[in-house]
Structure prediction request, 120 residues.
Amino acid sequence: MDEMTEDWIKPDAEGQLTVDVFRDGDALVIRSTVAGAKPEDIDVAVNGDLLTIRGKREFNREINEDDWFHRECYWGSFSRSLVLPVDVYPERSEASIKDGVLEIRIPIRGGGGKIRVREL
Prediction:
């Protein structure tokens, strides 16, 4: 393994998830691939306009360093925080995993919109 790869995969490093964020009707949807993670090993929290996903996925096999040819998959702790693009109802959020994809659905608050400007 080259030196750059060894620096990239440190045992105490934390991986960062990739996410897709989109509107589906009246819900904000956040999707992320979390293959290998169990639902009980994932924590999702919303604080104000910040959503944080934390978790871990375990690689359950010991492989001698000399036997590796290539290693890109991240195993261990991971997290991702992102600022939500719209105002939401976090207390009505739902999260599920299907086929290794985490989906978080959060209802979008209504009432946003244009403010009329008037001349004084």
Summary: Residues 34 and 59 are 13 Å apart (CA to CA). The helical segments are 3-8.
